[in-house]
Amino acid sequence: MPADFEKQSYWHDRFASETAFEWLAPSATFISFLEPYLSVSGDQRVLNLGSGTSDLHVHLREKGSADVTNIDYEPLALGRGREIEKRLCGDVRTKYAVADVTRLRADLPAPSAFDLVLDKSTVDAVSCGGEAAFLAMARGVRQCLAPGGLWISLSYSAARFDLEELPFDVRVIGKVPTPKAKVTDPDVYYWCYLLRPR
Prior knowledge:
It is a single chain. This protein has helices at about 10-15, 25-35, 55-60, 75-90, 105, 120-125, 130-145; strands at about 45-50, 65-70, 95-100, 115-120, 145-155, 170-175, 190-195. The longest helix has 15 residues, at about 75-90. It has a single domain (about 40-155, about 165-195), classed as Rossmann fold (3-Layer(aba) Sandwich). It is α/β, with parallel strands linked by helices. It has seven helices and seven strands; from the N terminus they run H-H-E-H-E-H-E-H-E-H-H-E-E-E. The chain has a seven-stranded mixed sheet. The protein is about 30% helix and about 25% strand. InterPro entries: Lys/N-term_MeTrsfase_sf, Methyltranfer_dom, SAM-dependent_MTases_sf. Pfam families: Methyltransf_31. This is Methyltransferase domain-containing protein. One of its GO terms (molecular function) is methyltransferase activity.
């Protein structure tokens, strides 16, 4: 049976013992796709969806992103994120908030307009809950974006955003080859998407 990625109980149980994990690819790989879209002045407001136990927020700090908000609907994940940031950076400067990505406007601590919204496979976990949950996430992201804002998502699916009702124009900006057990195995990729609001 597949894991219940869409259920908070799954993540609570997982984060009770997990201290660090990178979905699909290391954060350094994901950052390489983000670099053309990161502000050199560091004044972007960045929303990191489903931050979990990834070190993505640390990489964003290293690239000069000063205003990063990490959200996850499991409080244990946010504690782990703070621990990672403190250990790797010596202090905690990014923000943390408990929020459900399918209820962004209701759950964010204050109405915000973000210049860049990021997720490393959070969209895949949400999609396990069905199309309605996925579209709720997409509409919430759309409402949270500032004028000219972008959503960049790393997904295992080559067709993740193939939905007519999606309020974004989508293009692939990168792909990551998955490890092969044998050289004769077919090429399989993870996909990095750039989403611009319609």
